[in-house]
Every structure is written in structure tokens, then in C-alpha cells.
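Example record

The entry below shows one chain as it appears in the dataset: sequence first, then C-alpha cells.
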Amino acid sequence: MKTVVAFLIGALLAGGLVWQLLPNNSGAPAQSAGADINPEQLVERVRQQNPQFTNSSIRFMRDLSAFGFPGLYEISLAGQGMVVTAEGDYAVVGDLFALATITNLSGEYRNQQIADLATQEMGSISPDILVSFPADENVPELGTLWVFTDPTCPYCRRLHEQQEELAAAGVTLEYIPYPRSGLGGERDYQQLLQIMCAENSAQAMHDFKTGGNTEQYALSGDTTACSAAVADGYAIGQRIGISGTPFIIKSTGGVIPGFNSAAAIIQQMRSAN
């Protein structure tokens, strides 16, 4: 379902910015429901507009009245930012900019919201769903990176190639399973399931990301616990609102929605300490 929603949004971006959320494009725009809208109510209105949104991550971001757009609201649908009407039936796909400085106000606000949510989630995450690559011993501890990862993701593999450099700088990597295609059993989900079911999940993660011998991780027996671990990782990512992998959360503060080099990450963490 996530793939279908992503395809739909991609088609809308390619074809134009204004989008009616209803399956039928006929009819006049609905009247505004007023500025005192309930965020949960708006999310439910958007969800009801199209059956493809039934299981999608939809998050209310903010009321845009303060920017001169009364009756319009910023939301995130499956990781895509957009502005919707109070009835949730029309949307403009894109971000709000301050033209005087060419500042992406939506991006800044969205990243701060995601960082706050990520920090909260990491405070209560179960160690049972983490695949750990500790920092080297006898070096000053710099911090931890929690990384939503998918072994089929090229940039996840590229980040993993720099794990030793991060460890030598005192950085611990904590991988969180996050199948980009969802929980429908695609290749990314199957590989993460094999990793989480392996006796040594860290070695399995390394082998899948570096082209090692992965035949040894064929599934057998009860996979309930490892299936739950993958599902938990995916659910946490959906609650945070991530839209791809790698997605990096720094214990020193802030998030990196994508790949950064080990050198850049280390510098960021040192500057924050």
C-alpha cells in the first residue's frame, strides 16, 4: 500500500501541484470548516477521502493562518508535505517558502517536528529490535546513531561501509529495521526478517549489506519474534514520519534524513558536545 501511495504522490508531483483527494475529480470546492479545526479530525477527513490512504501515515503539522492562509493546514501524507483545506478534500503538494530569504519554512518546521518525535521514540525503544555495532573500546565515547535501515538500500550500504570509521571516533551504531516497501513481504522485508531471526544479527546485517554469505540465514522454525521486531521498527518510523532510509537520529541532537559521510557526522556530533 505504501508503494501505491508513493506512486500516486509521484504522479501528482509530475502532473501538477493542485490535487483533489477524492477519487472523483468532479464537484466544487468544499466550504471551509473554520480556523478552530481539530487536528485529529482533519487527519481523519483526509484519510476518508481515498481508500489508498487507509493505512498511510498522516500527520497534522500546523495551521497556516499566521502566514496569511486562513483555512489552510500543513500535513504530511506518507512523508510528503502538502497543504490541505479544512474539509481535507483538496491539497497543494509542496512546501511554504519565505521568498525574501528563499527559506523553506515547511522543511525547517517538519525537520524540527521529526527530530522532537524521534528523540521521544528513542527514549523508549526496545533493545530487542536494535542491531548494534558498538564504538571501539578505549576511545572517548562520542555518542550514538540510531539508524533506520534497509539492507537493499544503496545509501544504507554506503553508510555501513563507514561503520569502522564511526566506531574509531567513539560512535555506536544502532540499526532499526525499516523495510521501505512496508510489511508486505517484499525483498527488503524478507532480508530484514532473516537478519532479525539470525543468531548473530549484527553479522547477518553486515553480510547482507556487504554481499557476504547470506544463504546461511535461511528462515526456519518460528519467526514470530523477529517478525514483531521488524514490524515494531517500521511502526516507529511511521510514527516519526520518515520517508526513506537511511534515516539517522543523533544522540547529540538532531536528525539526518538521508546519507552523510562519516566525517561529516563525526564533525556534527563533536560540535554539539
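Notes for this example: The longest strand covers residues 143-149. The mean pLDDT is 87.
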